[in-house]
Amino acid sequence: MKTTPETVKYVRRFGQRVRLIRQQNELSQEELADRAGVHRTYIGMVERGEKNATIVTIVKISGALGVPATELVREIEDA
Amino acid sequence: MKTTPETVKYVRRFGQRVRLIRQQNELSQEELADRAGVHRTYIGMVERGEKNATIVTIVKISGALGVPATELVREIEDA
DNA sequence: TTGAGCTACAGACCATAATTAGCATTGCCG
DNA sequence: CGGCAATGCTAATTATGGTCTGTAGCTCAA
């Protein structure tokens, strides 16, 4: 998929929500990564809006954060 | 990403929700694809649980279906 | 200062998301 | 019957998701 401005927008908002909830849970990126079963640097990229995560990864991360997947997708879409 | 059983599970449930809501809206796969700006066959693959869609694609499809992205992610995660 | 914990970032790599074209099948309708 | 709409399915290609290694910067405590 091409990296359109909209692409960047949604991905960035998703990353912001991940970072926010991770910090509320007082987890480091590495702790979150380990719990989610993804790589350390990948969490960083997601939070910075550099990676367009898939459903499976979203579920992994939401599980590791102890929130439903819908929490991470909330309010990402509207302008 | 490896195709683990969990992978298949979440992806399949997501596809089921897409198909359900598409049919409730009385759209063909092709109409949905055009509205979402993705290819016809891709929608078919998603509904059949063969594709692990990304955030951007989820938002595109949810927009084309006229529902919030959270609607498509709802109840995908639990066993 | 020195060291430890946390994060940003770059580069290389493999698996796969997403595109596209093509053909087969099913069911419905004239 | 023939034709049309909708879907399933395959194969080939390109772009990118996700892994891994390593470097560098920051803050804070000893």
Automatic annotation (TrEMBL), chains A, B:
Keywords carried by this UniProt record: DNA-binding
Record organism: Pontivivens insulae
SUPFAM superfamilies tied to this protein: lambda repressor-like DNA-binding domains
Gene Ontology terms for molecular function: DNA binding; DNA-binding transcription factor activity
Cellular component aspect of the GO annotation: cytosol
InterPro entries: Cro/C1-type_HTH, Lambda_DNA-bd_dom_sf, TransReg_Diox_bact_type
Record-linked PANTHER family: HTH-TYPE TRANSCRIPTIONAL REGULATOR, METHYLPHOSPHONATE SYNTHASE
Name used for this protein in its record: HTH cro/C1-type domain-containing protein
Native organism taxonomy: Bacteria, Pseudomonadati, Pseudomonadota, Alphaproteobacteria, Rhodobacterales
Annotated HTH cro/C1-type domain residues: 18-72
PROSITE patterns (UniProt xref): HTH_CROC1
